């Protein structure tokens, strides 16, 4: 409806600027149709894709040319030239000629003549020009992600689905010694492989199984008075007999993600928690009360202290970490 202030608020709330209605129309398409110049400017600045077609095959430039929206068409043409994406100009020109919009016809003919002098690599100017700062790189990445369909709304949906899958797995655990320790919803993001949201096969849920057996008593930390203790140094407990690979991989299916099963042993006590060291607390931006809550949560009965079975590379069977 051409309300820039409302649109600016929505953009700050990170709405999907390329959301399509059932008929395929996007916000920039609708604004171009109605001649809302300021709205189109704001959407382009927010990296809206001006080349998304409605189900009729019409682009924002086509509908602006059809309706004689000269200023909007001029803005869209300028952006098309900057991106070196001129394929929408010829259909828009034919439409403007058909509807007798002479000013738009002249504009589009000029744009085509300019386009003929541009490099034929079909790459945008932004892609050819090296980015000068992190913010520009971020904008280029955001634009590439958005144009490929990997937008905030789809990312949120993918996270929600991952959380549901992980919760189902938690509820189906049949053994008390099993714990979900990885985050599939974080894993798919960290393992993003292509711009359309496809993830690496290593995006999985990590399952930890606590092996039944006697507790391990770290030397210098144990307060149980145990006679037999194990060496502890910098987060490593040395104990013989374990393989280099700490996990067993289970393939996923269309009904569930893959997961890794990791074996672990219980310790009698928690070692010092690194983020809670005095020097770390002093340097941290995290408030000390929050760190204390973290310590309480980690040392509660629901969070058993454990070490994962794994050996350093080339030392399988000789020691575990």
TrEMBL record:
ANK repeats lie at residues 23-55, 56-78. InterPro entries: Ankyrin_rpt, Ankyrin_rpt-contain_sf. The lineage of its organism: Eukaryota, Metazoa, Spiralia, Lophotrochozoa, Platyhelminthes. This is ANK_REP_REGION domain-containing protein. Keywords: ANK repeat, Repeat. It comes from Macrostomum lignano. It comes from the Eukaryota. SUPFAM superfamilies: Ankyrin repeat. Pfam families: Ank_2.
